[in-house]
Amino acid sequence: MKKFICSLLVGGLLSFAPMFSIAQSQSAMEAYLCTLNDGKSMSDLMEVVEDWNDWSDDKGITSYTAWVLNPIFMSNADLNRQALWMGVAPSFKELTATIGTWYSSGGDLLQDFNKVWTCNTHMEMTAMVVRPPSGEPSGSPVASFYDCTLNDGRGPADLMEATSKWNGHLDENGIQEAMVYHFPAHGHPQDASYDMKTSVWRADLANYGNSADHFVNGGGQQAAAASLGQAISCDSPRMYQATLVRQAKN
């Protein structure tokens, strides 16, 4: 396939944001891209996460939702990482308040994380849910991430129209998956070739298998080309097992 989640928040690629916000509100998101240190495992990380949750409760952090993601399908040629952290808040004010509390009061707990993994990338972005999950969200879904670019001559309005057509196709065929557009802000590569990232979330691998079969043999590929493919082009996706480690209370 052709290639299909700025120094100032209001500059660069985020100039798309006001146009998209007409159709859908956007949340604030941060992502850490990390590698587990030698001799450390996910169980070691989750022990620290448990302490972090206690710390978050003590600090009154109630608007922050966090996930830990581990790769299922990936290639070391383009993604040599073993774990990711994604944090979401309703607004940048709430996100930066949480980050500021962590930086000023994390103390020994920050060092405990550093003993388990090394995070060389910290990115900020907006997250716009363009297809909400059906039913109750799963606490351990699988998520596929794509790097995407707008096709020549296409803009935000074209993308939203194409997204609406694709959602209609999924609804008609009973495909249960959620989709999020991520628009980059601070921390993304200066030479990034994408305009945005797209994530697709399924409740589990069985749900992914159903979606994949429809895409390959049920007309999904043709429908995607006739809808989303008219507006954006995306690269080969990476898939992660996502574990919910903190749920916002408001």
Jot down its keywords.
250 residues; alpha+beta; Alpha-Beta Plaits; 9 strands; disordered N terminus
Model description:
By secondary structure, the protein is α+β, with helices and mostly antiparallel strands. It has a single domain (12-246), classed as Alpha-Beta Plaits, CATH 3.30.70. The chain has seven helices and nine strands, in the order αβαββααββαββααββ. The chain has helices spanning 17-21, 42-58, 92-105, 108-116, 156-172, 205-217, 220-226, and strands at 27-36, 65-73, 83-89, 117-131, 142-150, 178-184, 196-202, 232-234, 238-246. Strands 1-3-2-9-5-7-6-4 form an eight-stranded antiparallel beta barrel, surrounded by five helices. It is globular. Residues 1-23 have low confidence and may be disordered.
